[in-house]
Write a structure and sequence with these properties.
Radius of gyration: 20 Å
Oligomer: single chain
Helix content: 25-40%
Shape: globular
Order of helices and strands: EEEEHEHHEHHEEEEEHHEEHHHEE
Strand content: 15-25%
CATH architecture of the largest domain: 4-Layer Sandwich
Length: 297
């Protein structure tokens, strides 16, 4: 892992989950997303120390462990390190049983509940301009992947998008990535086009995006949502339960469903699309023989 300069005082550490770094004159730095766990945090720490940087601030774009799992290591080892996120993401981070509950629908198995240690948040960020150590950052609402995900634009006009936008590689690999709300996701796609930024960093991508490139990627993501919606509607020409609908999606697209956790990611996203299509008046449901069936209206 290396510290890669983007522009001005804005850097990032490329990894499975990209970590943003904004540096201050006194060698303190702000970290954007901390990786999956203590191991990831130690790697981030080593990169920062090798560049004479001191972790002082953490901003989490959202609560998922691959973006916040390194927080506790950094705050425990660097007293005075201050953590920020949005209001509703804070609820999930400080009450970490909430995500498995929303994901699984009850107390979840250990496969899903990977951590039982709350992540302390010091301050809630509001949308708009926020000062952190006298530097101005723009906080953007990018909900959809989670309840209250945010993007952050540094003073160098570099925007960290979290998981609000999926790279082509991610769409090809998973085909049905995790979405909490399809409607909010589509609204966030439009917000991304309006962001006053020059360079964009995704949570999971090995490249940086220019303004034109990110707008093109937004269009690809919109097309993906529309294609998935149309595929759902085509299958639902016949009534199917949620499980049977997902079975069709998995088999028709030759998707990997051998992992318990990955299956439930697909299962949750299936619910998100069913909600979206139902609310648009395109899908209805009925209960028969102990099952809820969904069908095209």
């Amino acid at each position: 892992m290396n510290l890669t300069k983007i522009r001005g005082n804005t850097f990032y550490i490329p990894s499975n989950t990209n970590t943003g770094v904004y540096t201050y004159k006194n060698k303190n730095c702000l970290i954007i997303d901390t990786g999956m766990n203590n191991t990831a945090a130690r790697k981030i720490e080593n990169v920062l120390l090798s560049n004479n940087l001191h972790p002082k601030y953490i901003v989490n774009t959202h609560n998922h462990l691959d973006h916040s799992g390194g927080n506790n290591y950094l705050t425990e080892n660097y007293p005075g390190c201050i953590t920020y996120t949005s209001e509703k993401e804070r609820l999930f981070m400080e009450n970490n049983e909430l995500f498995p509950y929303t994901f699984y629908g009850a107390v979840s198995t250990k496969d899903i509940a990977k951590s039982n240690k709350p992540i302390k948040v010091d301050y809630t960020l509001n949308y708009g301009t926020e000062k952190i150590n006298d530097e101005k950052f723009e906080i953007i609402s990018l909900k959809g992947h989670t309840l209250d995900q945010i993007g952050i634009v540094t003073p160098d006009k570099v925007c960290f998008l979290g998981d609000s936008l999926f790279s082509v590689d991610i769409l090809n690999k998973y085909q049905l990535p995790f979405i909490y709300s399809v409607e909010d996701t589509l609204n966030s796609f439009e917000h991304i086009k309006e962001i006053d930024g020059d360079i964009f960093v995704l949570g999971h991508s090995d490249k940086l995006y220019s303004k034109d490139e990110v707008e093109n990627l937004v269009d690809i993501n919109i097309k993906w949502v529309n294609n998935i919606s149309e595929e759902f509607l085509t299958i639902l020409d016949q009534p199917y339960s949620r499980e049977d609908l997902l079975q069709n999606i998995l088999i028709l697209n030759d998707m990997d469903y051998s992992n318990f956790n990955q299956y439930h990611i697909y299962f949750s996203s299936t619910a998100a699309f069913l909600t979206y299509l139902t609310n648009k008046g395109l899908v209805e449901n009925h209960i028969e023989n102990g099952k809820i069936y969904y069908y095209r209206k």
